[in-house]
Amino acid sequence: MRTLRVAVLVVVLGVLQVAFFTHARLFGVVPDLGLLLAVAIAYRYGPEAGALTGFASGLLFDLFLETPLALSALTYALTAYAVGLIQAGMLREPRGITPVIGLLAGLAGGFVFAGLGILFGVDALRDTRTFQVIFVSAVYDALLAPAVFWLVNRFTLPERDAPSAYRVRP
Amino acid sequence: MAVHRRASRRRYVLLVLVLSSVTLITLDTRSDDSGPLGVVGRAAHTIVSPVEKAVDSVADPLNNWWEGLTDRGSLKKENERLRRELSELEDERRQAQEALRENEVFESLAGLPIYSDIHRETARVVNRSTGNFEWTITLSKGSESGISPNMAVIGPDGVVGKVLESWTGGSKVRLLIDPDSFVSVRVFGSQVTGLARGRAGSDLLRLELDPGVDVQVGDDVVTSGLENSDFPAGLSVGEVAEVEEQPGIGLLVRVKPWTDFDGLELVQVLDWVPGGPPVVVTTTTVAPAATTTTPATVAEDDE
Description:
The complex is a heterodimer. By secondary structure, chain A is an all-alpha fold. Chain A has helices at residues 2-20, 33-45, 47-62, 71-88, 97-119, 129-156. The longest helix of chain A has 28 residues, at 129-156. In chain B, strand 6 and strand 7 form a beta hairpin. Chain B contains 3 helices and 15 strands. Chain B is of the alpha+beta class. The radius of gyration of chain B is 23 Å and the shape is globular.
């Protein structure tokens, strides 16, 4: 059931990414919703789930890009896997950490994408503007991370684990 | 023991994903769009196209409202209309001069491609670059309107780019400023031709010419229409913005395109075959199953 819900989130955020956020750019740059979703899943359910989600959401996004197919998929899977591993080593969850995760994941994902892209012959990435785009995109990811993490918690956590389950009912 | 098994499984999953990705990347870079991966991509575009159009129809009025709020909307529209008219007149003048020059040189040859004879399909821009490292636009019309890869695309101010892929309900155009873009051009008024290429992180095109060529800042640059070029001759591209002499190599010319790529709303896709015969349009006669091919003058479908 959770897999199905994650699949729905992958599709919904994928459509938002290619149809809506191309009109809602920050300094001409679009965010990486698929990466944020993969990172949120990795943070909540571990590196394996994050990597699988990242591969799926990245592959969906790749269908609409001119860069080689599966480049985003590989980037998202690797980044989400790393975030899942780091989260597993954390003793406690600091308040307000989601924008920080979004920023760091955006930066890491951006550099992994650029590095792999250059390796696979994407000439558009061989430019100093790439650094600027990665930074702005990471800031955009940081701004959107709380919303994506909330979506993941809201739609994938079992009822008993959801924050609302701990409310005292009259 | 269980922890060790879980860690091994994780690494195994990651390894499978990495290998799958590398395989797909290799397959994609080695095959063209007609392969199975291209079919999947076009299917995804076809499914998302209605959403793109719906979002654009909502986003467009919002943009206009915002511009109207800041008193820029009407002025911008008026300015656009005047620029379009001026550009059309300039185009006509250039077409005429270009035709005269070509006639002098190739007097004996017939059937040179003439801009006004080309079937044009008008389409609306419904989306812009999906990713951060590509310079593309998505159009409202696609294969159902006869739009296919490599067709030239022009806007009110000049050349826009080339069709990259098309599907039912839309098509994607690679803009001139994309680093993978190139167009065969001529510096207007001279015989100097070369390939103008897009450049990552720049709005200017890069044109490398032989040393000693007479090129001045402000010179108009038009498509050359040379053999195998995807663009007919004489279309406006831009003007020379910078000329830099590179000792021992030649001239590095930077061309500023006339087209405002961020402000594009409507474009025209030209049905012109590179190096092919004069442009013709197929018309169906009254008799059933009978088709005749006749030369066309101007065949234009409006949005």
